[in-house]
Design brief:
Blueprint: H1 2-6, E1 10-15, H2 21-32, E2 35-38, H3 39-48, H4 52-62, H5 69-83, E3 90-93, H6 99-108, E4 114-119, H7 122-136, H8 143-165, E5 170-174, H9 179-191
Parallel strand pairs: 1-3, 1-4, 2-3, 4-5
The structure holds adenosine-5'-diphosphate, 2'-deoxyadenosine-5'-diphosphate and magnesium ion (MG).
InterPro entries: Adenylat/UMP-CMP_kin (IPR000850), Adenylat_kinase_CS (IPR033690), AK1 (IPR028582), AK1/5 (IPR006267), P-loop_NTPase (IPR027417)
Protein name: Adenylate kinase isoenzyme 1
Subunit structure: Monomer.
Length: 194
């Protein structure tokens, strides 16, 4: 089963909370037809199911912490397998959030050909998340949790970017710009893939 996805095009989409990962992924789906898998969305589906596991996940996410690696990796892998026959490529949004997650992904699934680094200032991310929180219904879009998510991003996730820079696959886009201008930078990075 996993064989089928080994040769698939895999793009990691990494950036701070509220940087605009989901926004850009939607546009990539529309233009390139890739399959968008957001680890956060997969987790929120489990939470919404009301299962015991969902309740445990909800408690972790509400605190702005990372859920256990195996849980999120299994969810992504299952979702990839389900789409393996029809997918032109996978956008893995919100994963890896720490270097270990990247290493485990490569062991169990495959190697990314590109890491899209969606970059915005902390101040911008906070402002966007507070605004998103007015309508998102997300229990982690509040001031206290946002601060924890940002701290964790700088501590655990930024090292992921340096790790893949060493491999030469990081393309940074300036997400301070308007959505369409960010997307034009995103398109340049994707068009450069073979
Ligand atoms: N380039 C941008 N300029 C202005 N607002 C943006 C931009 N990108 C995203 N946003 C807004 O910021 C918020 C967070 O974006 P989202 O894509 O959900 O980020 P993430 O998935 O990285 O948390 C959303 O409300 C979105 O509409
Ligand atoms: N790869 C991952 N590993 C561990 N926890 C994760 C995870 N992806 C998401 N989560 C959990 C912790 C995050 O604070 C929460 C929301 O994630 P998200 O939807 O990707 O947020 P955002 O798009 O605002 O950056 O879900
Ligand atoms: Mg998102």
């Amino acid at each position: 089963m996993a064989d089928k996805i080994k040769d698939a095009k895999i793009i990691f989409v990494v950036g701070g909370p509220g940087s605009g990962k989901g926004t850009q992924c939607e546009k990539i789906v529309a233009k390139y037809g890739y399959t968008h898998l957001s680890s956060g969305d997969l987790l929120r589906i489990e939470v919404a199911s009301g299962s015991d596991r969902g309740k445990q996940l909800q408690a972790i996410m509400q605190k702005g912490e990372l859920v256990p690696l195996d849980t999120v990796l299994d969810m992504i892998k299952d979702a990839m397998i389900a789409k393996a026959d029809v997918s032109k490529g996978f956008l893995i949004d919100g994963y890896p959030r720490e270097v270990k997650q990247g290493e485990e992904f490569e062991k169990k699934i495959g190697k990314p050909c590109l890491l899209l680094y969606v970059d915005a200032k902390a101040e911008t991310m906070v402002k966007r998340l507070m605004k998103r929180g007015e309508t998102s219904g997300r229990s982690d879009d509040n001031e206290e949790t946002i601060k924890k998510r940002l701290d964790l991003y700088y501590k655990a996730t930024e090292p992921v970017i340096s790790f893949y820079e060493g491999r030469g696959i990081v393309r940074k886009v300036d997400s301070e710009l308007p959505v369409d201008e960010v997307f034009s930078q995103v398109s340049t990075a994707i068009d450069a893939l073979k």
